[in-house]
Structure formats: C-alpha cells, structure tokens
Amino acid sequence: FWTERLTPGAVDAIDATTLVAAIQQEPKVARKTHGHSVGLGNTYYYFMAGTGRVVSVEKNSIGLSLEEGSDHVQVSLEAGNIFGNAVRDGTGLLDVNNFNNSQDFNAVSSEINRRIETDVLPGLREKGVVGVKLRFVGCTEITDESTDLKPLRVVPFIVEKP
Q: 138 pLDDT exceeds 90?
C-alpha cells in the first residue's frame, strides 16, 4: 500500500495554499468541496500537499507558513507519536468494505502510523529548522472546526526539501 498506492497517490492531494484560502473564505464550502468523510459522524479529513517555510519548531510539531514573508503558522506538521486514522482515512485510498473485519482495517492504520514514525519523522525533525522550506504531503483530521482548522495539523507521509 505504501509504495504502490499511498506515495503515488500524492498527486491527488489538494494544494495546501488553495485549501487554506478556501477554509478562510468559507469553511463549510471547503469541507464540502475538498473534505473526505468516512462513515457516520462529524469527523472529516483533508488530503493535501504544499510547500512552506518553517517558522516554529516545537517538541512534537513543525509550524509552516505557506505565505512568503509571513511568520503565521498555517500548517503544523505532526512530529511526535502518531495516533488515529488521518492518513488511512484521509487519502480515500482504502475502503473498509475491502477488509474481512475491522481489526484488519485498524491494523493498516497502526502500520501506516508506525512507518511514518520510523521513516518520515526522523527526517522531518532533521530538516525542520526555522527558515528552511519544506514540501509535504499528508492528511489532517478535523473533529472540531474551532480548533482543528487554524492551524491545520497535518500528519505527513512525505517530507522533503523542494
């Protein structure tokens, strides 16, 4: 899944600058146009890619500004332990109906998160220096729009210098 679907699937991610502008203009329209929901409930996901300049480095996150000359954090790349299903569900590449049971479906999420922690985050922490530009691809899970949209907290599965 990682090499044959997830990484190549990055071409389908929405541009982060376009997404942030859409959210600022009208969050409900952005959700309807660019969001991805799985099952019932209010949780939804964005699958995005972009380039930003590192403006803050915290223990478990790297803050990026997508705007040239701004120090405002618009995207926060998760750099600590990864929990949840943001990448599994956010890309829309996996369907729960293709799994025999929910345990197998959840195991996929655990493995994706483990791989991000071991293969992606060490490089993010190394490259994540204030002033450096980074290109990222990842997903964000929105459960509370009042806190999850500003900044977008992204679980990255690709991080590189442009």
A: yes
Asked whether 120 and 158 are in contact (CB, 8 A), the reply is: yes
| Predicted confidence (pLDDT) per residue in 62-92, tens digit | 999 999 989 999 999 999 999 999 999 999 8
Q: CA angle at residue 92 from 102 to 133, to 5 degrees?
A: 120
What is the spatial distance between Cα 45 and Cα 142, in angstroms, rounded to a whole number? 6
How many residues are present in the chain?
A: 162
Q: Are 61 and 124 in contact (CB under 8 A)?
A: no
Q: What is the end-to-end Cα distance of the chain in Å, rounded?
A: 25
Distance CA 49, CA 45 (A): 13
- Residue 28 Ramachandran class (φ > 0 left, ψ -120 to 50 alpha, else beta): alpha
Tokens 């120090």 sit on residue:
71
Local structure of 41: helix, strand or coil: coil
Determine contact, residues 144/55, Cβ cutoff 8 Å: no
